[in-house]
Amino acid sequence: MLDPRKLRLLRELARRGTIAAVAEAVMFTPSAVSQQLSALEREAGVPLLERTGRTVTLTPAGRLLVEHAQTVLEELERASAALAAVRGGPSGPVRIGAFPTAARALMPAALAELARACPELEPMVSEIDPADVSGALRAGELDVALVHEYDFVPAEADPALATEPLFAEPMYLTGRAALAEARDDPWITGKPGTLCHAMTIRACQAAGFEPRVRHQVDDFDTVLAFAAAGQGVALVPRLAALAPPPGVTLSELPLSRRTLAAFRGGYGGHPAIGAAVAAFRTAITHLPL
In terms of pTM, does the model score above 0.85? Predict the structure, then answer.
């Protein structure tokens, strides 16, 4: 019998590429991950990994098992959700991830709605960058999360996750009326590796130039404060620009940021997930979109 917990580790290895990365994601030691994968090989009865020095790759049998593991793990999530529905209404802890803008603009109203509609539910919110959500959901650190994607930067497909679209908001340019006008300006972007940074770079490239990045800041309040101080121009979403500091002009662009709810595949039928998504939707009706 193949152990689902070990199958999850194999799936993570296929995605992350190294034992060390898997260990960091699931908060095991590398040696514990290696032992679990070796035990899975014994259960499977065929080699699943090829080891060359410190490099580990999946064998054809390993890749085949990962394909089946995804189906098995999703069915287990679906079974868990079905059993939770049989037990009754939403109750107990539900771990919610949210990126900073959503945590500030959407989550307070969503938490109030959850307290009203599902008093037995215990929401636990963690602020998280959307780039880290996939790993946190897959590792079971979160149950549901708010993520976003931008024009020019669509969400990376992850077969282990499912999403539900929630709302879209326009993007604004500070200090200029159009991107082309900011060709020679200094820019304020997010840090490399973030979706916001990639969106800004690609939007400028689509307008025919490479932005001259002066500052790299992730917090939109700080971005707007820098813009007010004449430190550069920036792209910001509507929810981050509801109360810009004095002196900052904003021009709406034909670009958007879209927010989605993400959860593990097969887990969407869990009462707690359904309650959380319903609360998000109720809270959205109060947003100035």
Answer: no
Highest mean pLDDT out of 134-138, 167-171, 193-197:
167-171
Instruction: Among 3.40.1080.10, 3.40.190.10, 3.40.50.720, 3.90.70.10, name the CATH number for the domain at 89-167+259-284.
Output: 3.40.190.10
What distance in Å separates the CA atoms of residue 275 and residue 192, rounded to the nearest whole number? 35
Residue 256 CA, distance from chain mean position: 17
